[in-house]
Amino acid sequence: MRHPILAALCIAGATGLSGCETLPFGQNSADETVERAFQGVNAVDGANLNEVMLQSADPEEAVRYFQRSTAQEPGRIDYQRGLARSLVRSKRITEGVAAWEKVSGHPDATEADRVELADALIRGGEWERAEAALGAIPPTHETFKRYRLEAMIADYNEQWDKADSFYEIAVGLTTTPASVMNNWGYSKLTRGAHSEAERLFTEAIQRDGSLFTAKNNLMLARSAQGNYALPPISMTQTERAELLHTLGLAAIKRGDVAIGKGLLEDALETHPQHFEAASRALDALGSTATN
Length: 291
Description:
Layout: H1 3-22, H2 27-55, H3 59-72, H4 77-89, H5 93-104, H6 111-123, H7 127-135, H8 144-156, H9 160-172, H10 178-191, H11 194-207, H12 212-223, H13 237-253, H14 257-270, H15 276-290
Helix pairs in contact: 1-2, 3-4, 4-5, 5-6, 6-7, 6-8, 7-8, 8-9, 8-10, 9-10, 10-11, 10-12, 11-12, 12-13, 13-14, 14-15
Protein name: Flp pilus assembly protein TadD, contains TPR repeats
Organism: Roseivivax sediminis
InterPro entries: TPR-like_helical_dom_sf
């Protein structure tokens, strides 16, 4: 990663030396050329490091990095953004909200920054403030994240028609809609629209077969309709056991105790290791029957 930067410095140094030979009285000009080269390399390297810290570093390590950076250059909005994102990634939501508020007040702040503030507010359970933050953003700012958050707020307010409209727009604004389809499906599930929820969870899994949350939610949607069969979706052996466990608990909750017990036994046998949760559920079921 450092080799291109080193090469750039070598080229800058060679240019400076060449200038000294041809311009004996131009030493200051050569020094300025080298200094500008250093500044350009530092800017590129800094931007790359910011991205690395945000995407792959430990969240707390990223927080410390951006705290140091903002202390050294408090006016840099990219450092302020990095700190805000890192705080949210670290689950330090209250601090993250404060950091995004600071970013949003910066002269170079964008509408996307204000969307991030709304996201942090939702994570902190401050739904009314999040709604106000989004409401202050012009409707011309049409992004996937903005509409996903609008849909979540409409869900919270039980404004189902608005939620469906926002979810539909959000799905159309991204090439990776699995997570928002899962959210939309869960919204349908909470309203009792179980077949529609099943369809959305299935579509989410088709888009992203690694999305276990959607697989688990699909079991809830199917069991709510009295369907306790595993659907034909990709799953590991461990996932299969966990999904059987979910179906078993859902069956028992619906009063289909015998079916639920059988599903829990299947889950216990299927899991490649000891499945403590299924074992406890069966023990509890046995104790209840005895009593």
